[in-house]
């Protein structure tokens, strides 16, 4: 019998990115909106804490194993900002901000810095729990290194993808084809790490 799990996100972009990776390894993955509506407050102090909160919440709501991620952009010159606040960087404590607002704030914060001081990375933590009280969750960590451009590229990116330059690909993240992104991104690395651990446990059945 195929192992079913809940993907703990309401973000359609994450569903589109993560689900194919999970299905390709023989697992049955369903987004949480297939079971319930609502979300848990992401008030942890790290990507891992937030991912764990989301996974436990989805598992408690459904009674099924759950997998969740939390991710963001960390800029070296900004001492790791925007980090866990990536989605609401421009809003501060006011809540969500648009991608446009977040990127504009980032570019303003880094105005005048040469490329040697614009190093950054996308970071992701993925957590899988068998049940809501799982005392030994499976954890995967991924990083994707690059640098922040001085202006946008394609205008088609999600989040900070238009200004995150990957030197070895000679592209901004927004210009990387999805099939390549799903093999090498921070999120792909973290998801694959968890799937490898599940396979070591002998799943899917």
UniProtKB/TrEMBL annotation:
Subunit structure: Homodimer.
Name of the protein in question: dITP/XTP pyrophosphatase
InterPro entries listed in its UniProt record: dITP/XTP_pyrophosphatase, ITPase-like_fam, RdgB/HAM1
Pfam family, one: Ham1p_like
Annotated active site: 70 (proton acceptor)
Enzyme class: hydrolase
Catalytic function, reaction form: XTP + H2O = XMP + diphosphate + H(+); ITP + H2O = IMP + diphosphate + H(+); dITP + H2O = dIMP + diphosphate + H(+)
MF annotations from Gene Ontology: dITP diphosphatase activity; ITP diphosphatase activity; metal ion binding; nucleotide binding; ribonucleoside triphosphate phosphatase activity; XTP diphosphatase activity
GO biological process: nucleotide metabolic process; purine nucleoside triphosphate catabolic process
Binding residue positions for substrate: 9-14, 71, 181, 186-187
Function: Pyrophosphatase that catalyzes the hydrolysis of nucleoside triphosphates to their monophosphate derivatives, with a high preference for the non-canonical purine nucleotides XTP (xanthosine triphosphate), dITP (deoxyinosine triphosphate) and ITP. Seems to function as a house-cleaning enzyme that removes non-canonical purine nucleotides from the nucleotide pool, thus preventing their incorporation into DNA/RNA and avoiding chromosomal lesions.
EC number(s) stated in the UniProt entry for this protein: 3.6.1.66
SUPFAM superfamilies: ITPase-like
GO cellular component, one term: cytosol
Keyword entries, A-Z: Hydrolase, Magnesium, Metal-binding, Nucleotide metabolism, Nucleotide-binding
Cofactor binding: number and manner: Binds 1 Mg(2+) ion per subunit.
Domain of life: Bacteria
Homology family: Belongs to the HAM1 NTPase family.
Cofactor: Mg(2+)
Annotated positions binding Mg(2+): 41, 70
């Amino acid at each position: 019998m195929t192992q079913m799990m809940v993907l703990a996100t309401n973000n359609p972009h994450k569903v589109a990115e993560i689900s194919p990776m999970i299905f390709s390894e023989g697992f049955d993955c369903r987004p949480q909106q297939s079971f319930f509506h609502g979300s848990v407050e992401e008030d942890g102090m790290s990507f891992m804490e937030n991912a764990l909160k989301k996974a436990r919440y989805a598992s408690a709501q459904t009674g099924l194993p759950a997998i969740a991620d939390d991710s963001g952009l960390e800029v070296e010159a900004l001492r790791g900002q925007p980090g866990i606040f990536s989605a609401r960087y421009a809003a501060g404590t006011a809540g969500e901000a648009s991608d446009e607002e977040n990127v504009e704030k980032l570019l303003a914060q880094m105005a005048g810095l040469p490329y040697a001081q614009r190093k950054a990375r996308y970071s992701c933590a993925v957590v899988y729990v068998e049940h809501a009280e799982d005392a030994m969750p499976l954890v995967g960590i991924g990083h994707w290194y690059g640098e922040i451009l001085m202006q946008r590229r394609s205008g088609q990116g999600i989040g900070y993808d238009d200004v995150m330059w990957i030197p070895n690909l000679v592209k901004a993240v927004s210009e990387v084809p999805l099939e390549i992104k799903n093999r090498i991104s921070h999120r792909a690395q973290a998801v694959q790490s968890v799937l490898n651990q599940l396979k070591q446990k002998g799943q899917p059945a």
